[in-house]
Write a structure and sequence with these properties.
Layout: H1 23-26, H2 37-52, H3 58-66, H4 68-74, H5 83-100, H6 107-127, H7 132-142, H8 146-169, H9 177-204, H10 208-221, H11 229-239, H12 243-251, H13 265-277, H14 281-294, H15 300-304, H16 323-332, H17 334-337, H18 348-360, H19 362-368
Helix pairs in contact: 2-5, 2-9, 5-6, 6-7, 7-8, 8-9, 9-10, 9-11, 10-11, 11-12, 11-13, 13-14, 18-19
Length: 389
């Protein structure tokens, strides 16, 4: 589901009260994904400031840099920065508003947030016409359909890569290998976000092979998978019922930075979906139990199956193995959960997961009833088994 910054009949504005999502409340961003706009804004200016410090006097440089954090927090305009840095700061503020405030706002406040986000993106592009994050985010409100947004992203990918590579090559060599590596990495991040968005958009449109093509292209560019595009790929392989490719994807987790096992909720749901499609209900139940064990205490998310608005800047920032991460994965897996139809109004797989989770964990059923009106309060309970088309 998409958060939209303008009027569009096909892409409705989402104003959502999400049960128990906490990442927007405490400000903690122990990320399952790498792209935190506030952190990146800080990194950009820290690099710029470090490059302005006197060379050859580490003591003086250390004293000067000690003042950086205070100035960044209280008077950032006094810090050295380019128009591109200023534009990214506006993107970061817009991301906070659109991705972390708007979905949880009241009706009365939503219109102001939408207008504010739109104005920030427009200003960012006026400062830096090659601010591809702002261009991509703005396009998500202007595109008349999901297919149109997919086409826009697909057609612009090569230009974005060329721009980011040029920015990477322009990073000065100041003798500090670590700083230079970070600067070059930051220069390539807009391309990684662009390609991750392209893969996600293709999945939403049902263009599963295009999703895989974009995701694999991004993994080839960045085997460490800073954008966590493997999560999107897992869902696409499940959609295509490609068990071999899903297994191969799991073996590539060894290159991920920071390291993480192939037991995330996206991979778990993809494996479960394939077992369910193959009518192996024993394996499907086993995989469901494993998923619940991986996210202990959060089984209610598998019953409520809340749909969240997509992150406009990047996938929403949530802690690994948290309830928020499970909620986010379930939301993105809607393309699998809502396949087919049953009496509950859900898809066949979604209904089976909700029903089986409720049987395995009655306490989760009680908890879920506090947050939604799911299948068990509706007219029918759906079939006991079935397959997913």
């Amino acid at each position: 589901m998409r958060t939209v910054l303008g009027q569009n009949s096909q892409l409705p504005v989402v104003r959502l009260a999400v049960p128990r999502m906490r990442y927007h409340e405490d400000g903690e961003r122990r990320r399952s994904v790498a792209f935190d706009p506030r952190r990146e804004d800080y990194q950009r200016l820290a690099l710029r400031y470090a490059q302005s410090l006197p060379k050859g006097d580490p003591v003086a440089a250390a004293k000067a840099f000690a003042d950086f954090g205070r100035r960044f927090a209280r008077d950032r305009d006094t810090l050295p920065q380019s128009d591109a840095d200023r534009a990214f700061h506006l993107v970061a503020v817009a991301a906070e508003i659109i991705d972390y405030q708007l979905p949880f706002s009241s009706e009365a406040r939503a219109d102001k947030l939408i207008s504010r986000g739109r104005d920030l993106l427009d200003e960012a592009i006026s400062l830096d016409p090659k601010c591809h994050d702002a261009i991509r985010m703005r396009a998500s409100r202007l595109s008349p359909s999901f297919d149109a947004q997919f086409t826009f992203l697909q057609e612009g990918a090569d230009e974005v890569l060329a721009t980011c590579q040029a920015a990477r090559d322009a990073v000065p060599d100041d003798g500090d290998d670590e700083r230079m590596a970070l600067g070059r990495d930051i220069a390539l991040r807009p391309y990684r976000r662009w390609m991750a968005a392209l893969a996600e958009e293709a999945l939403i449109c049902g263009r599963n092979r295009s999703c895989i093509e974009a995701g694999e292209r991004l993994l080839e560019h960045d085997p460490s998978d800073q954008a966590d595009v493997r999560f999107t790929l897992a869902l696409a392989y499940a959609k295509l019922e490609d068990q071999a490719s899903l297994d191969a994807l799991a073996t590539r987790y060894g290159a991920i930075v920071p390291p993480r096992a192939a037991d995330d909720a996206w991979m778990g749901i993809a494996r479960l979906a394939l077992a369910h499609k193959n009518h192996d209900m024993g394996l499907a139940r086993q995989l469901l139990e494993r998923l619940i064990d991986t996210y202990p205490g959060y089984a209610s998310a598998l019953i409520t199956q809340t749909e969240l608005p997509d992150g406009v800047f990047a996938r929403l920032a949530v802690p690994p193995y948290s309830e928020d991460e499970l909620i986010l994965a379930v939301s993105e897996a809607t393309v699998l959960l809502q396949e087919g139809d049953d009496k509950s109004g859900r898809g066949v797989l979604g209904s089976w997961i909700a029903r089986t989770t409720a049987k395995l964990h009655p306490e989760a059923l009680t908890e879920a009833q506090e947050y939604s009106t799911p299948y068990y309060q509706q007219g029918g309970k759906g079939p006991q088994g079935g397959d997913a088309s």
